[in-house]
From TrEMBL:
One of its GO terms (cellular component) is membrane. It is a multi-pass membrane protein. InterPro entries: DoxX (IPR032808). It comes from Undibacterium nitidum. This is DoxX family protein. The chain crosses the membrane at residues 18-37, 57-76, 83-104, 110-130. Keywords: Membrane, Transmembrane, Transmembrane helix. It comes from the Bacteria.
Length: 150
């Protein structure tokens, strides 16, 4: 039993990071996909945003959905991860400001629609962006220390 506990989580950092990206991508793609099952979602959310004087209110739901649907696969395949994470962060942080903050902290149990889940998503986005930047820095450092071929 001690050996089992010592080896937890049984995955490498690389494998865990892949699952982390897969999870984040899946959460955003699922969120975007559900919009297509809600009749008049895009118009109704545009109206909601317009009432709060959000610029481009009727365009933003389409933009967020497009970013989530395109960004998800890019994140899964670790392409432009920092930029996808920044976009997802913007969507989540915007949701906190426009919707969730006024509803309190808790999403469920002790509240309804609060910002705790969105804060967790923002932190996940920051982790992906930081990991991608670190990977890019390593590649750049390796390229700087290689000798040109003759």
């Amino acid at each position: 039993m001690k050996q089992l506990l010592n080896n937890f989580p049984y995955l490498s950092v690389k494998q865990t990071y892949f699952l982390f990206r897969l999870c984040l991508a899946g959460l955003f793609m699922a969120h975007a996909t559900m919009r297509f099952f809600e009749p008049n979602y895009f118009h109704d959310f545009g109206v909601f945003l317009a009432k709060r004087n959000v610029p481009l209110a009727y365009f933003l739901p389409y933009l967020a959905t497009t970013v989530e649907m395109i960004g998800g696969p890019l994140l899964i395949f670790n392409r432009y991860a920092k930029w996808v994470a920044l976009s997802f962060f913007g969507i989540s942080f915007g949701g906190i400001i426009i919707i969730h903050f006024s509803l309190g902290w808790f999403v469920g149990e002790w509240g309804t629609g609060g910002c705790e889940y969105s804060v967790a998503l923002c932190m996940m986005c920051l982790m992906v962006a930081a990991m991608d930047r670190e990977q890019q820095d390593r590649r750049t450092a390796l390229q700087a220390h290689t000798f040109p071929s003759s």
